[in-house]
Amino acid sequence: MLSDPQPLLADAAAAVTAATDGGLPAWSLPAGLGLALAGVAALRVSGYSQLEYITAAMLARHVRSGGARVLQLGGSTRDLYYYPQGTVQVTVGGADINAGLWEQGGIQAKKVLSSQAGSTADSIVLVNQMQQWGDMQQLLAQVYRVLKPGGTLIFIQRLRGGPLQLLLVGSGGADPAAVEAVQQYGGWDFVQWDATLEGTDPHAVGVAVKPLSTGGTAASVDAEAFEQLRRRGKAKQQRQRQGGGSKRQ
User: Fold this and answer.
1) Is the pLDDT reported for residue 242 higher than 70?
2) Residue 21, in any domain of the structure
3) Is the pLDDT of residue 34 over 90?
4) Does residue 204 form part of some domain?
5) Residues 244/3, Cβ–Cβ less than 8 Å
6) Whole-angstrom Cα distance, residue 73 to residue 4?
7) What CA–CA distance (Å, rounded) separates 44 from 6?
8) How far apart, in whole angstroms, are the C-alpha atoms of residue 153 and residue 198?
9) What is the pTM of this model?
10) Separation CA 65–CA 79 (nearest Å)
11) In a domain, 156, yes or no
12) Is residue 28 part of a domain?
């Protein structure tokens, strides 16, 4: 039984980094590396499951029910199952999209976004897209242009700097400043975000709302539900820390 994998994982991470940098021969890796990597796999599955839950909750709660038209950049075809009943169209772009299942699949995200007419999307969903844009202001301006009044921007974004990120998912992720740019962008009627999986593979999860033409907060965003989701995630992370991490038999 591996009751606390963290020290072993830390040693394994250091060894793998040194080996890939040419600092150590392959045979000098610690004997427990195989067990540690098995623990990493378990952490990866656990993190993936949490992200699936968060993605499902964000789409279900912040895309309006009945007749919504959505533009999603990034993610996977699995996300189709998480949209509210009655969603009439999901247009998706991104290199990892199956073109047989998505409209306009395989087109680069920038091209998809820039090709949309103004005020045509009820929601725009960004899944790990911020690092692909050199200019966040340009991205946000395009998002704001395409959203209908009262429409929602929903984002799920991997952040740089997780202590086990290289082992879990490899390189990648956006600078936290990119997420802060969303919050600081002028014109939102409501914006809120929070971090999750901070101990392994940090992600930012958030929602922003374009104002209604007549003013007032859009009914499409469920601020109370977002706060409940945030508290639930924090409580789960706290229980995991108190429990000493993942356990394997």
Assistant:
1) no
2) no
3) no
4) yes
5) yes
6) 38
7) 14
8) 22
9) 0.65
10) 16
11) yes
12) no
Helix, strand and coil percent figures for the chain, each rounded to 5: 45, 20, 40
Number of domains in the chain: 1
Q: Are 20 and 167 in contact (CB under 8 A)?
A: no
Written as six digits, the tokens of 112 are 């998809």
Tell the burial category of 76 from Cβ atoms under 10 Å away from its Cβ (0-12, 13-18, 19+). Answer: middle
Torsion of CA 105, 87, 85, 189, to 10 degrees: 110
Report, as an integer, the average pLDDT of 186-215: 87
Residue type, 67: G
- The whole-number average pLDDT for the span 78-85 is 89
Nearest to 168 by CA among 35, 43, 11: 43
CA nearest to 52, candidates 9, 93, 86, 82: 82
Range of the domain at 124: 47-242
Percent of the chain, pLDDT > 90? 31
Please, which residues bridge with residue 248 across strands?
Answer: 2
8-state DSSP, 162: -
| 8 A C-beta contact, residue 149 and residue 210 | yes
**Alpha-carbon gap, residue 146 to 125, rounded angstroms:** 12
Is the pLDDT confidence value at 188 over 60?
yes
Position 37 pLDDT exceeds 80: no
Question: What CATH number is attached to the domain comprising 110?
Answer: 3.40.50.150
Q: How many CB atoms lie within 10 A of CB 88?
A: 11
pLDDT tens, residue by residue, 142-179 = 999 999 999 999 999 989 876 665 655 555 688 999 99
Q: Considering the chain, what is the average pLDDT of its residues?
A: 71
- Please give the helix or strand (H or E) that residue 209 lies within, else none: strand 203-209
